[in-house]
Structures are given as structure tokens and as C-alpha cells.
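Re: the request from the purification team.
They wanted to know what the chain is likely to look like in 3D before they choose a buffer screen. I agreed to run a prediction and write the result into the notebook, where they can find it.
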Amino acid sequence: MTILLAPMEGLLDFVLRDILTRAGGVDRCVSEFIRITDQLLPERVFLRIVPELLSGGRTLAGVPVRAQLLGSDPVCMAENAARLAALGPSGIDLNFGCPANIVNRHGGGAALLKEPETIAAIVAAVRRAVPAHMPVSAKMRLGYHDDALAIANAQAIAGSGADELVVHARTKAQAYRPPAYWERIADIRAAVAIPVVANGEIWTVDDARRCREASGCDMLMIGRGAVADPGLGRAIKRSMGVAVGPALGWTELVPLLAEFWQLVCSRLDARSRPGRLKQWLNFLRRRFPEAETAYQSLKSINDPALIDRWLAGVLQAQAAGEELLQPA
């Protein structure tokens, strides 16, 4: 069983990747996409989005990170992939699944699922441009309007030299609305000769079990489910007999929440810091009642100093076995 942490623009950046990989259960990450247009990006852009490149292409917990590129021009994608490869990521991933309209209007992400021949050209160009030892993977959705080209797109990716394929089991039109159509991943697995990873709507251990049964995949990618429950990867592995750490409850999560806040304060501008903490708490309250209390306590607080004080109080209260504190 292999668990991958999904790329999620505006949510799963290097800060949250760091914290979630500390929680355990994640074997590999994919960065949020690096947008490629018509120019060769300077190294600083790659390093800003994937600072793990400065630590051997791994998070501080030692989990490998593949850097993801998004674009529609094979030549530009190849040139940028070569520059990125020189910085030492754990691999390069290609985005054929982003459903954002602003990306699709410019021919990137899921819009390419209407053009299997362009997908094939991009994958082949990138594969030629990077060292043979460096993995090149891709992520796709089932299609744009429908899934009629799902097999053709998967075969274009596999046949052009990709080493691995992640399939988000919904179309662009279906966005993130449940359900995910995991059984269609089984059809794709039967049509290609490279490893296939199942992704989409995996929030619980039971979801993971049903996804495995429907897709036939032993490799799963989790995104929002891991943000809402940082112990999900661990729990999935434990349910399948893998020796991992104990369940991650709120008591174990609070120190990670404090470390997340410290990282946010050290790496992000002051105005965006409170929003990042509240964004994560908003996800966590799906799984933890204590997170609901924390979110309600902080939702109107935008002073980092007050949040510092609140977190210090929560840690002290937890050590003393008391309830969450209200902010001063």
C-alpha cells in the first residue's frame, strides 16, 4: 500500500506538506502546479513553489516531493522540465487535470483532455528532456465534458514515456462533486502497462477500502481527506495490516497545529497568516469536534499576537487536561 499526498493549489503548499508528512503515513507528495507559459522560468520560481528542492527534493520529514508542471506547449514544458530536473526534485509530474476555468481557458490542465495527441507530445518532450533516472508521472481526470476519451488519454500518457499515472475519478465538468467513479480507473488500469494511482473522494478508511476494490489500485492519492484528517494515511495502512504508528487524535494533532502556525509565521506575510490557520481548522472540524471549537474561537481573530496567545493557552490547557481556551 502506497499513499500519495495530492497537489492542491491554494491549500496544500510546502508548509502543509511539511506538517502532514510529519504526521506519518504518506509515502510521497506532489507539489502544487508550476504554471508554464511561453518562457523559461528562473530557478527562483521553482524554489519558491517547491522549497523542498533545497533539501534533496524531500520534506523535512524525509518524504519525497515530485514537482508538478502545468502547461500546453511541448517545447516550453520540456525546457522548463530540464531546468527543474537540474534542481533535484524526486520526480516531475505533469498536470492534465486542473479544473480551474482560468487555467482551462488558456489550454492547460483538464482542457488538454480533449486533445490526446497534445498530451502525448508534452509527455514525450518532457521525458526526452530530463535524465533517464528521473521519474516522470502525470495526473489526469476522466475527461473534460465526459469520459469518452479516458482510455485514449491514459494510453497517450503511458505510451509517451510516463512512468506512472494518477487518475482523479471525475471529469472536469463534475469538478469535486461526489461521487468519484473509481470503477473507471479499473478500465484505465486494464488499458495501460504503467502503475496507476487512484484519486478522488477518499475521506475515510472505508472510502479507501471501497476505492481499492473498485479500482484495483494498491496506490492511493489523498488530498482533502488528509487535510481534514492528518492521520488518514496512517489509518488506511493500519487497516491493511501495515505496521505504522497509533491513531492520530486531537491530542497528538495540537502540537502539529502549533508547528504549522510557527511555519506560517516564519514563511508567509503577516496579512495572510490568520487565514491559513483558519483554512486548515475549517477542514479539521469535519473530523474533530475540538477543531470546531477552535474555529469558532478564532474565526473573527486576525491579530497574530492573539493567535499566538491562544495557541500557547491551548497547549498549556492540554498539558493540564483542561478544555480549549477562548482567545484573550
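For the purification team: The beta strands are 2-5, 28-30, 34-35, 65-70, 92-96, 136-141, 164-168, 196-199, 219-222.
Please add any questions underneath this entry.
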